[in-house]
């Protein structure tokens, strides 16, 4: 174990990897701070630049983007009154009023300290829990992997929010898309319609670029001329001794809730932040301050937000099941750079796993330094007009699609899926279930086929394995929890109305 850590630390501390982590972290903070440019989009746009990197270096760079973007969302929440990422929506409740009181700097600095704490504490849990979970998963048979894929697909209920039926339709479409090409077990060709390029199925990166990046660009075109203005400027930044003491308990509360929620697949930062805020408000002696500019409110929300990142990486790395929406994209990104998440990852490439663990903690310290600088420079970054920003994003999206195989075919696929994503967004079909279907579909199909071959076409085999049966029960519970949380989605949607009222 110590040897793995030493080797991992050596890899993470290589100058080129430190530079890549820094680039990822800076890019993540900028991406998170810019409304309309999501964490998922940032990871996808970064992918083409990782194609020619060593998988270890590429994964560290993506981790920097992931962590940085989680903090970046708080900047626009405080300065613009618009969350840069969905999970920063709860930051508005106290962050925006603090900005109105001339304490925007304090609000962002509090968010930075809390995000750093959440990242470090969740990283510790990731380091200890992921190897244990991966070791247990080595016992899995093909039918257990099938049940695991079904459990992963049950996340669709959670990420669909109020639109459960549309989420299911989106997921089924993703499963159908995953069947295009040559079937791995029997070698039969499906749904290629005589197009030779479709024999290998759809390349994942153009699909991701289309569904997330190009769709977002098309949505922004509808809002031409609607620029968001800076509401507050940065003045005082540092917390007083009393204020610093007051955020210790909120940070601990946020960390515990964020880590627990993060480890549960299909939950995510938005649920964790609102739950943490509600818990702290109920136990606080200063309930009357919440919603009017309490630094404790900002601290608990941002700590929970970043604690989710490490927690969500536990099932993603150990089982290959994404913990939330962003890690669903991270899962696809890892597959594209040659990293296959799952229990065998810890046995086959321990140097990659432990370099990621070491890099995770280094990234949190980088975020602390870069985040402080961004606190002072954020107003200038946020004033980049969208008429300049979106064409740059489009250029990166097209170049990224073309660079995979130097083929215009992949650019066409990205554009087609961009139009599909646009249609889905306009009609409230969530995109994440589509991606989950595409990623987890082959895993479910191939392992079910293997299990049926081994059992002589006995479909009851999935109920005979204790692991498989447990995972199927968890899948049912996940669906039920998703339905319940979808009914509570109005609390998140109510933030927009609240912000308008504040103005």
Give a quick summary of the entry.
By secondary structure, the protein is mainly α. It contains 23 helices and two strands.
Low-confidence stretches: 490-496
Number of structurally distinct domains: 1
The counted number of beta strands is 2
> What is the alpha-carbon Rg in Å?
22 Å
The major β-sheet equals:
2 strands, antiparallel
Total helical elements: 23
Tell the overall outline.
Answer: globular
Organism: Dictyoglomus thermophilum
Protein name: C4-dicarboxylate ABC transporter permease
Transmembrane segments: 20-47, 59-82, 107-133, 145-161, 167-186, 198-219, 247-280, 317-337, 357-382, 394-424, 467-486
Domain DUF112: 18-436
Q: Can you walk me through this structure?
A:
A two-stranded antiparallel ribbon has the order 1-2. Mean pLDDT is 82; it is low at 490-496. It is mainly α. A hairpin with a 6-residue loop joins strand 1 and strand 2 (189-190). 74% of the residues lie in helices and 1% in strands. The longest helix has 34 residues, at 104-137. It has helices at 2-12, 15-33, 39-50, 55-79, 92-100, 104-137, 142-153, 156-159, 164-178, 204-221, 241-246, 248-263, 269-283, 295-319, 325-336, 343-348, 350-382, 386-403, 408-426, 432-455, 461-464, 466-487, 490-502, and strands spanning 181-182, 189-190. It is globular, with a radius of gyration of 22 Å. The chain contains 23 helices and two strands. Helix 6 packs parallel to helix 12 (248-263). The relative contact order is 0.20. The protein has one domain. The chain crosses the membrane at residues 20-47, 59-82, 107-133, 145-161, 167-186, 198-219, 247-280, 317-337, 357-382, 394-424, 467-486. This is C4-dicarboxylate ABC transporter permease. Residues 18-436 form the DUF112 domain.
């Amino acid at each position: 174990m110590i040897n793995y850590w030493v080797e991992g630390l050596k890899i993470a501390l290589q100058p080129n990897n430190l530079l890549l982590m820094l680039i990822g972290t800076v890019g993540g903070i900028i991406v998170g701070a810019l409304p309309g440019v999501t964490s998922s989009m940032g990871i996808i746009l970064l992918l083409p630049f990782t194609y020619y990197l060593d998988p270890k270096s590429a994964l560290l760079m993506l981790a920097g983007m992931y962590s940085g973007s989680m903090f970046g969302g708080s900047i626009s929440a405080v300065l613009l009154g618009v969350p840069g990422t969905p999970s920063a929506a709860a930051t508005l409740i106290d962050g925006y009023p603090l900005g109105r009181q001339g304490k925007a700097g304090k609000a962002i600095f509090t968010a930075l300290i809390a995000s750093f704490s959440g990242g470090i504490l969740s990283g510790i849990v990731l380091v200890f829990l992921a190897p244990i979970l991966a070791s247990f998963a080595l016992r899995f048979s093909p039918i257990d992997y099938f049940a695991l894929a079904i459990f992963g697909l049950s996340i669709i209920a959670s990420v669909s929010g109020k639109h459960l039926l549309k989420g299911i339709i989106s997921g089924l479409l993703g499963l159908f898309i995953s069947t295009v090409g040559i079937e791995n077990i029997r070698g039969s060709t499906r749904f290629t319609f005589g197009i030779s390029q479709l024999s290998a199925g759809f390349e994942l990166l153009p699909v991701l670029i289309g569904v997330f990046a190009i769709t977002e660009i098309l949505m922004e075109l509808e809002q031409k001329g609607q620029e968001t203005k800076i509401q507050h400027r940065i003045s005082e930044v540092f917390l007083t001794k009393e204020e610093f003491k007051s955020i210790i308990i909120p940070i601990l509360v946020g960390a515990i809730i964020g880590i627990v929620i993060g480890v549960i697949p299909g939950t995510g930062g938005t649920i964790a932040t609102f739950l943490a805020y509600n818990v702290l408000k109920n136990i606080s002696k200063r309930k009357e301050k919440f919603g009017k500019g309490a630094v404790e409110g900002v601290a608990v929300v941002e700590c929970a937000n970043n604690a989710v990142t490490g927690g969500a990486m536990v099932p993603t790395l150990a089982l290959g099941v994404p913990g939330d929406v962003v890690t669903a994209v991270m899962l696809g990104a890892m597959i594209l750079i040659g990293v296959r998440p799952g229990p065998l990852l810890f046995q086959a490439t321990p140097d990659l796993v432990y370099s990621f663990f070491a890099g995770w903690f280094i990234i949190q310290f980088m975020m602390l330094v870069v985040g402080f600088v961004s606190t002072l420079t954020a107003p200038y970054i946020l004033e980049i007009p969208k008429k300049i920003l979106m064409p740059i994003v489009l250029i990166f999206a097209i170049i990224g699609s073309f660079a995979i195989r130097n083929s215009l075919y992949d650019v066409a696929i990205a554009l087609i899926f961009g139009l599909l994503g646009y249609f889905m967004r306009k009609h409230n079909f969530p995109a994440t279930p589509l991606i989950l279907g595409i990623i987890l579909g082959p895993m479910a199909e191939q392992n079910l086929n293997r299990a049926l071959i081994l059992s002589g076409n006995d479909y009851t085999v999935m109920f005979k394995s204790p692991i498989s049966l447990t995972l199927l029960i968890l899948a049912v519970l996940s669906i039920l929890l998703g339905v319940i949380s979808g009914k509570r989605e109005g609390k998140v949607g109510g933030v927009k109305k609240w912000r308008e009222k504040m103005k």
